[in-house]
TrEMBL record:
This is TetR/AcrR family transcriptional regulator.
């Protein structure tokens, strides 16, 4: 039973970390900020995550895994696949906006371990999307995947900067 409560506490710390990192960024966030958000002592954070970097990596991994899971659950005809994947990502962005912000932040962090996680996460999304688009018979698949991912990253940046006109010309 203690393990269950420990897992729940770890989850609470991870969620607090997601929120604080999304608001303050990686470099401006301390484990004290995360502990305060989670309503625990700072040393208790270290019981579950040895470093701030480890906590950030866990949060970033979660963001990328959730995107892949979302894309894998899209059911659509080949003609509607791209549109349905975009819709699924938009819903995910509404439900988990902190994870969207974390992706943008992850791209800007220079620490090697975080950069590696960002590269791995983006590569896994690219590889999955490429295979899925190929299986659907989408023509010019490499260019379509590049465009799909580029628009997704642009959407993330637009959200992060609160600059909707980057993707929505009606707001100009």
């Amino acid at each position: 039973m203690a393990r269950l409560s420990g897992e729940n506490r770890k989850e609470e710390i991870l969620e607090a970390g997601l929120e604080v990192f999304a608001k303050k960024g990686y470099y401006n966030t301390t484990t004290a900020h995360i502990a305060e958000k989670a309503g625990i002592s700072q040393p208790y954070v270290f019981r579950f995550f040895k470093t701030k970097e480890e906590l950030f990596i866990a949060a970033l991994d979660r963001a990328f895994e959730r995107i892949l899971h979302t894309f894998k659950n899209v059911e659509a005809s080949p003609e509607q696949l791209v549109e349905k994947m975009i819709e699924a990502y938009e819903k995910l962005s509404e439900l988990h906006p902190n994870e969207i912000a974390l992706q943008v932040i992850g791209i800007s962090v220079t620490e090697e371990a975080i950069r590696n996680v960002t590269q791995k996460g983006l590569s896994s999304i690219q590889n999955y999307t490429l295979e899925r688009f190929k299986a659907a018979g989408i023509r010019n698949v490499e260019n379509e995947v590049t465009t799909f991912l580029a628009r997704g990253i642009l959407c993330n940046i637009s959200y992060f900067l609160n600059l909707p006109e980057l993707i929505d010309n009606k707001n100009k």
